Structures are given as structure tokens and as C-alpha cells.
Sequence to fold (328 residues):
Amino acid sequence: MNQRRLVILALGAGLSGRTALLRAQTPATSLRRVGVLAPSTRAKEEVTLRHFFDQMRELGWIEGQNIAYDRVYADDQMAQLPRLAAELVARQPDLIYAPPQSAAVVARQATRTIPIVFATGVNPVGAGLVTSLARPGGNVTGVVSVIESLAPKRVELLRQMLPGAKHIGLLGDPNDPRLAGDRNALTPVAAALGLTITVVEISSPLEFDAAVARMIGQGVDVIFGIGTLVTNLRGRLIELANRRRLPVIGSNQAWVEAGALFTYSASQDEQMRRSAQFVDKILKGARPADIPIQQPTRFELLVNLKAAKALGITIPQSVLLRADEVIQ
Fold:
């Protein structure tokens, strides 16, 4: 072998080795990192968020291949969210997914630069998350459940099912804007219909049983569960209310499946799927500031006929015919 050929082979081997080293140092597909700020427990959130993760997979985001989720759970302790949000921000994810609006508010307090997407909530302008629905203008965007409270509509439906109900209890977290929104929306309704509204606040699971007992002790005819914390504790609320044969009204499908009398709301499963599309767009380069807030286009009436029978309530046929789903 002549000297020239030896030099060429040596150079080739050197370049080949360097290329192999570069390939080893540079992954074939860069992982995008998404922090998930979840208020409840791992078990509950796996159920609530399954449609989000399913939709992400359909959009081509495969965990461990091109995306990594950094999941944190507050275990129904809302006071832990600020600490968890700060820890997520310190790890510098590409995006923070904070499904309920209350978690998004905490996340935005921790960062004004990392994109944040939420999947449920009301009035994000009033909550200080965005400048407007059409042009959010900051680092937050997402999907709202409703802009105005649906509590008056739920009371209207309740009176068709239970005409004798005169005393309505609202159970919710004072830090969740939905409690104040529903209370304010029901004030003129109560005055016009001669109803009494009792509000009991709950900010920790440790206070829950006592708060429910206090509400029952005030003689309410029905309990409206409001906000993220109470939704996460819906099973316990329904259990306690059933002992006194009190109907419970919820804010999404999960409530009816747990035994609530009915709910009138946007589809939470659909909202989770739509929020995944926001995450997909941002990971592909879109700015949250330019992605308009999405509002639901239809609302569902779900009725739990089994719960009604157990409570001795007869649901009018006119209501059953209007229902999108009836649980037998």
C-alpha cells in the first residue's frame, strides 16, 4: 500500500470516528419537556387527564421518544401549588400544562416567560391570565369551560326536578374564582325566586367533612360543588350528602359518574383534547400570546337517574328527553 493511500485511509478513519462521536453526543430526536402541574393525586389525575395524553399521542408526541412529562401532584392540597410551580419553573421545561385555571394562575405567578396552557376555567381576563380572549398577549393561553357562570341555568334545571328546593348550598374554595362567580350570578336569581343561598368555604381536605357538616346543619336542600378542590373530593361529598338524602349538583361529567344528580356543562373530556392541540402548536413554535382562548360551542345535560331514584326524586320526562346522557 503506497504512502498516499495510507494518508487517505487515516483521514477517513479519523472523520468516521469523529462523526460517530458526534452522533453519540447528539440525540436523533430532541426531547421536548412539558411540566404538568396537577392539583390532585396521581390516581385521580390519571383519570382526569387521560384524554389530554391520548390526544398528544395522536398528534405524534410519544413519551420517551420526543416528549418527556415532568408531572407534579399537589394531592388535593392547594396550598402546595406555589411550591410545586416554583420547582417546575426551576427545572426550565419548554411548557407548563396547568389543566385547571387555578393551577395556571399559580404557574403564571412563578413565570412570565415559560408558556402555560390551561384546559378548564372561567373568565381568564378577570383572573389576570390574559389581556383578551382574542389576543392573550402574554405567556398563557388555553380553553375555558364557560365565560359566564352556568349556576343560574343549573338552578333552573334543579327547580324543574325538585320544585320544593328553596335553600341552595354552595361549597367551594375561596381561592377559586368560580365560587365568587357562581355566588354573584345567583344573587339576583335568588332574590327573584325567593331562594336562600348559603356559601361554605373549604381550602383543604382536612376541613372537608366539617365544612359539609356545617352546610348540612344550616338546612340546605341541595349542595352545589364548585371548583377544583371540591371536584377532586366529589366522591366524599356525595357520600356525606347521601346519608342525609341531599342531592348534589356538579360541574362536569365526572360528578354525575360519581353519583351527583345532574350536571350542565361543557364536555371536560373534549376540553382536555383541545388543550392538547394548544400544547402541540406551542411546541412547534407558536406563541401563546397569539393563540386565542377557545370557548365551548355546546353544553351537555347529564342526568343520573339511579341517584334520583335513591333520593326519591322523580325526574320529569321533559328533562330526560332533553338530556344528552341518562345514567340508569
Summary: Residues 151-265+299-327 form a domain with the Rossmann fold fold (CATH 3.40.50.2300). The two ends are 87 Å apart (CA to CA).
